[in-house]
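Quick entry between incubations.
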Amino acid sequence: MKLTGAEIIWECLAKEGVDVVFGYPGGAILPTYDAMTKYPQIHHVLVRHEQGATHMADGYARASGKVGVAIATSGPGATNMVTGIATAMMDSSPIVCITGQVGSKAIGTDAFQETDVTGVTLPVTKHNYLVTKPGDIARAIREAFYIAKSGRPGPVLVDITKDAQQLTAEFDWEAAAPRLPGYRPSYHAPASEFARAAELINSAKRPLILAGQGILKSGTTAEVLKLAKTAGIPITTTLLGIGAIPASSEYNLGMMGMHGEAWVNVAIQEADLLIALGMRFDDRVTGNLKTYAVNAKKIHVDIDPTEINKNVPVDCALIGDLREVLALIQPQIKKATHEEWWALINAERGDAAVRDIQSLPDSGNLYAAHVINDLWRLTQKRDTIVVTDVGQHQMWEAQYFRHEKPRSLITSGGLGTMGFALPAAIGAKFACPEKDVWVVVGDGGFQMTSCELATAEQEGIKVNVAIINNSFLGMVRQWQEFFYDKRYAATPMTGPDFVKLAEAYRLKGLRCNKRSDVKTTVEQTLAAKGTVVIDFVVEKEDTVFPMVPAGAALDKMIRRPKQDVMLESGSDKDWEMPVPPAIAPAAEAPAKVAVVTKAKVTKPVAKKAAAPVAKAKKTSRR
Amino acid sequence: MAKHTFIAYVEDVPGVLNRIASLFRRRNFNIDSLTVGRTEQPGVSRMTVVVEATDAGARIVEANLYKLVNVLRVDDLTHKSALMRELGLVKVKVTPQSRSEVLQLVDVFRARVVDVDELILVIEVTGTPEKISKFELVLRPYGITEIVRTGVVAMARGHELISSAPPTVRTEGGHGHDDSGVSMSV
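Done. Structure below.
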């Protein structure tokens, strides 16, 4: 069957099962857009900036587990994609980007809108292609999809010259099957390594599972929990691993790292065995490598051999697919309970420096943590995906929104891309139209890609945007507060009237600056038809605690100052603190570890008696 | 830190040299020398890469090379018995008095004179990088005006055949974009 290159592109996308693409037309990709009209089964979402297209493809991929597709033209269209591609690369998200390129004869002549896109994206893609002939398009796209989703997933870019799109070639899907002799998506660790790993786990006294995004990618939540239950091992997650283990699981201690739970970081430093599952020992997770878990042996399970011994030298490496590894190791694991170890963790766990914000004083000002925690309480019966941006709100979301399901949190972890949240949420909504999609975003990050509100409006989709507006680049301000003597250089920030902005886009805008209004605001948002933008005006100079300063040992956390130990506020009493559903039978529980219990809630009250006078002062702290 | 010598078999496709070079820059490793050439198999190029790295660093280099889609096979020859060869051309000034001394040195180093005029000798020398450096050292007093070195190529000795399991290649021609690109050499 003779087809134009442009038609071959769409044929291939249809054959790969693509139902939606995110893109922006332009000169060098016009033949492809012209051919698009013949393929109505593929929905095209017109974005407002190509960065948005890549984030949408990324959000779509993370929410669905499928490959997301973004399309752009040559030159500026393609370079605008670079941030989104790098984001997908750092967080191992499978996306395929198709870019137009100037005609093959014009390559190298600095033609209008010409950029060496394969050169520019080389270090931020898993692989890329420059296609100059229509006959090569099918194989390049098939290989791109295969590479993007296999092994450790990642972005692949296919740059196709304009003449390759215009000329015709024989389209033969079968003949275009991937031929990649040098590509090794999967490895299989030798049996001896499994025996060693089992031996390490069986002989450990204080083991700890570090659960990463690999669990989401491989869909092994049940398998990891089974391992934890068998050997009585507590679990902590990375930021991207949130949702991989239900927050309500008694084995789940919470998030590790720079803004992780204090007891988790202490547990990592005290452990005698770390079992890292699909995580990569990022510096935000380890703190100072010299002092990181020095007493612990380490088992590292990862599908990517380049991650082994990259940051942290390990004692045992199991390279391969997590599902396969867990299936092979599980039968060799002996039952254990590690009661002493759990007792040690639980003793620390009473020291709930992170949770204290659940009872922040009702000072009249709204705290971001209030918003996020209340949002969780109000939406927990619904099927919700939260997409966060980067900064303080991202950490508060990780701390105060409790994720029970895999793929219910989408966030830019590795690259820390501000402006990620709104477009990624639009992509997630296309992947999961039946779910609520919430954007939790700072006023800074929102302003980076707020133009995509127009995309949401044009598509008629509903994403709920909660802007945590503190009129600061909050996380940078926090660093300036701690490490630069409160010299707030270029962090105070104004923004538009977000309510009016929403209205300008023909969307509903709401403002909330009192805790007592959070509930009605959220309810109004859920009831509204289209996309809603909420301007949550929160306390300006609030801080994420605890915090491990960059380069410090993991257990050397900056804690919320003592006088700040929060008292239970009036409005908190209005809330029925939900008891999380137990996912494991109580009898198997190694100890009482459910995070939110009656005892926990009443704890701050005891402190209230100790320092009653301080209350008034505290509320006007800032 | 020590010098590590890697042999990488790569698909002979456009941009593959860039991918390798970019990898080393990206991961902050310094390339000491890099040579590329065709192999006994069509469509496969062979690179010899020498990098300064710790043993742990070398493992990371090797894993990252393998991660490149166009890389077929990687061998670390550092701790194997291997032949290392480099070629150098040295242009050295001579006078009627010094000419015979220089020719003696050429003899000692089993080098060859490939061009002569009244003031200049061009000498071709092959051997290990160390030998060529030594040759350069002894000629320096006479006045070297120009020197060029190819970078090292390496091959395992005897039965340590690194190509014992030859890398597989795309067999069907005509479809890939490999046929569109010129074969890459140094």
